Amino acid sequence: MNNFVVVGGGTAGWITALFIKKNVPYSEVTVIASSEIGILGAGEGTTPPFIKFLENLNISVEDIIKHAKGTIKNGIKFTNWNGDGSYYYHPFWEKNSIGLSEELCNNSLVNYNKLLEKQDIDALHFDANLLAKYLQTIGLKRGINLIDDEVVEILQNEKEYITGLKLKSNTIVDLDFVFDCSGFKRLIIGKHYKSQWNSYADILPVNRAMPFFLDNANENNLPPYTEAIAMKYGWMWKIPVQGRYGCGYVFDSSYVTDEEIKQELEDYLGHEIKSPRMFNFDAGCYEKTWIKNCIAIGLSSGFSEPLEATSIWIQTTSLEYFLYKINGILLRDDQSIEEYNNGVNRMNYDLVNFIQFHYLSQRKDSEFWRNFETKTKKTQTMKSLLEICKGRLPIIGDMVCGENSILKTYKIDSWYLIGNGTKRFNVDLYTDKPYDTKGFINHSEYIDHVNL
Q1: In DSSP terms, which residues pair with 33 in a beta bridge?
Q2: Burial of 381: CB neighbours in 10 Å, binned 0-12, 13-18, 19+
Q3: Does pTM surpass 0.90?
Q4: Where are the domains of the chain?
Q5: Burial code of 186-207, b = ≥16 C-beta within 10 A, e = fewer?
Q6: Are 354 and 309 in contact (CB under 8 A)?
Q7: Model confidence over 178-199: pLDDT tens digits?
Q8: How far apart are the C-alpha atoms of 246 and 248, rounded to whole Å?
Q9: Domain over 2-68+126-197+288-332 is classified CATH 3.40.50.720
Q10: Chain segment 287-335, per-residue pLDDT in tens
């Protein structure tokens, strides 16, 4: 029997624990999390792969709606990224359905037929704190152990494999394999193993966030999308969950103070806001997120930024790739570890290129936007793409989208949508035919129906 330990009790920690318990037979799984420390509670949006991941864990969409104030996410609405008040959508639909998806989003409709048939339903929003609590409840029912304590020392043998964790209570927890889900603390992969940090700060310079909440208790047409609103020094996320919007301004602190950011938000919204806490981040990831008998999952492995909600996607894909690479019980196979680390690095590289592409827009109304294209570093992939965009549309062979890889990132249609939305190029993504909305239901009505 393999003894797995997960350090951290946020979404990443409980997702990891449930995944291992389900997919690695005869395993003992223990989560170590301190209720005194709590969790960050950020990251309330997902991408389509999360639905299938939940299905693998026998957790339904309805469960998330009922227990974590979940809502449906058809895609992302990008507002004012060109500085002209216009918007465009990045929906999770095939290209020939782009116009339909925009109509659904604008009219707060969700695909009821898909929901009834439990087909792919795009993605979800949720209250991150409630989701972690709900996943913990499920985990305890499924035999996962929980220790409410704090790790103070990491014990290892002469070959640098971790043998146990010493807790604040002086308890020693023995283990065969450990997942570092300690968030920005990065206790094991970062502080203990000191893996090399690959910074993306010169590619994605936003480095600070001011989160806050807005009330939507009287919302009759709950939007089925995340809204990403471009601001003077970055952008604001606006995520609808039941009873509130989870919001936050992500910005480059080298241009502006916290007080100026708060004032800009209040001018935009027309009222005062209260931020529960600010947090800094350095866009990047560790060169090796699997070292010896430890893998970092979630924020402990790295973080680019909130745009496109890729954090949970990286978590779930990394876990699936880990399962593929252990090939049964080979937890200490050096070749598999190297291949895993290379694959995760490639995925992060692809995602960082895609996120940077959003910022290369027509907006030039502040120093941040005027400087972005000229002062940020471009990877060779991005340089090639921008050159191609001057004369033609990119094709799949131009991209590093991993179409034939287990670690799939964004398809070419997504690049078209962003490039078209930011006026990098023009492509006909819409059809002239009328859209049949039969089988669709108002988003708020659906949420109320599930909660009955």
Answers
A1: 148
A2: middle
A3: yes
A4: 2-68+126-197+288-332
A5: bbbbbebbebeeeebeebbbbb
A6: no
A7: 999 999 999 999 999 999 999 9
A8: 7
A9: no
A10: 999 999 999 999 999 999 999 999 999 999 999 999 888 765 556 788 8
